[in-house]
Protein: Methyltransferase
Amino acid sequence: MPATDYQLSFNAVDSLLNTFKPLWQLVAFECEHLPWQHKFPHLAQKVWQLDDAEIDSLDMDQLQLVETLLPSLICDIKKHLHPQAEELMSQLSLLAITLPTHSINPESIQQTPDRSQKNNNDKTKELAHFSAHIKGRKWQQIVAFANKVDPQNQPNLTLLPILEWCAGKGHLGRLIAKTQRVDVISLEWQARLCEQGQGFATQWQLPQTFICADAFMPLDPEKPLLLTQQHAISLHACGDLHVRLLNLAVSAKTQAISISPCCYHLIQQSHYQPLSIAAKASELSLSRHDLQLPLQQSIIATPKQQKFRNQQVSWRLGFDSLQRNVRGINAYLPVPTVKQSQLNGSFTEFCQWAADQKELVLPSDIDFTDYSQRGFERQRLTKRIDLVAHLFRRALEYWLLLDRVCFLQEQGYQVALTEFCANSVTPRNAMIQAIKTN
Ligand SMILES: C[S@@+](CC[C@H](N)C(=O)[O-])C[C@H]1O[C@@H](n2cnc3c(N)ncnc32)[C@H](O)[C@@H]1O
Structure:
């Protein structure tokens, strides 16, 4: 896509997110009612018409979620936001945006990485052995990512040594070392993962070397990590970690960069630090809590897991109402994670446990039935607030991705934003690929 198109897309998604901030930039468990119900009455009516099970299933499918809530949202836009209505309507398609796959050879994504037809059975066996200890979905991601960074499939790429950032056990780097026969350096800070990864590389006699180091360490000018003649890659390095890679690669004028970002909220600062000129000029200010929104897509859960989740939220919120009254402080008090077994007892036992954790003495005359009911009602409310916020999760991720894309363009890179595998393999399936042009 030409540079201007990404900038136009950024402006559109930025405007959409700004206009509808009241619907998504909020902390559901702090609310006592739908905070936007007066401005969006049709939407409020719609979410209360949905039963809890419907909400759970809609939440898993962005397209269905948008299709279900959009008619009510449009009614509200026409009524209350009509000066901007036309422009807003055109932006609403961004709620269900999907990225292009842009595979030069779409079939290659499904293929095993070694494309030779000869000795196919042997190769398949060898790959099965090669990937034996990697979980199915992870392996699918790795194969798809490796295909996208292979110059044999992507003619716009040249064969370059690889730097794999935040490599874990370096499975991706190892597959690339095997398929491309290039040198791979894998950076990872957990010594145990480095040792295991190095062991696999040695076993397979592959040119992969681990550097066991902190990605945030000050760089030694004598031994630069990032080079111009290099392809820097990163699969699912969290928040600041992939941003660090982008900054280092840009400074080193690294020829090719391929990243799939994740966990945008894992940042050192309290608020998101935009990278591009466009995002720096945006009115949006994103807290860590806001940055979790793109990750809030329920994965397929069994009815039992759903029940457990609902009960847990309900009890936590019931205890929250209780502790606010007991402490006389109207503020949330974080309670540690609970084990499933803790929810087999009674709500009263749960409250006693939570109070112990927080060294809170509970008076003897507490009406636990009342707090249990309050928790249940607050759980139903937060579910509806979250559902509406989730309408915007994809748009917010698009905003964050485009910030990275526009930044790289500003730094003289030709950039493509695509998906490297299906959403069902991982919802974090976006890939930013940048090639230095000047
Ligand atoms: C989500 S995992 C991704 C691993 C691998 N790229 C993959 O997709 O399987 C992130 C990795 O980053 C590593 N990591 C976290 N903080 C780091 C740091 N400061 N320096 C180097 N590695 C770090 C973690 O140990 C972990 O292995």
